[in-house]
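Q: Hi! First time doing this. I have a protein sequence and I read that you can turn it into a structure. Is that right? Here it is:
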Amino acid sequence: MNLDKDIQFEENFGSVENQYLLFLSGGDLYAIEALSIKEIVEYGEVTKVPMMCSFVKGVTNIRGNIVPVIDLLDRLSLGCTRIQNKTSIIVINLKGLEKDMQIGVVVDEIFEVDNISIIDTREAPEFGSKIKKRFIKKMGKYSSEYIPILDINNLLDIEELSKIPD
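A: Yes, that's right. Below is the predicted 3D structure, encoded as structure tokens:
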């Protein structure tokens, strides 16, 4: 998928509940539920915020909104994302108790939007994965292999993201 333009996800985009955005990060393919995505933008200027965890890269201005930006690889304890020409920010809508919030997640490259049938999903293994089980919602079968479908609520837990490191 070429990101000559930003991709805007319409409110009715995810009318099919088994649509997922597939993307590459650190050489691995991951998926997240398309319903949680607001838009995808090319990586732009990110302003560093002092005294934040290393995986919080800072904030960026997207269409007049100040959006915190998280490095997915760093959040998963797999290193840091190297910014390249296909690096993108996936803007995710999080439903909050008081109000909804948007958080940007930096990934290497957007792959595609595709369906993963519920019959092609399995529970995450207890061990043997590169990432912590709490960050994996399910494993989904895509092109004859199982890929992690990330659990956005655990991955982007506001309380955890907001902690000031020791």
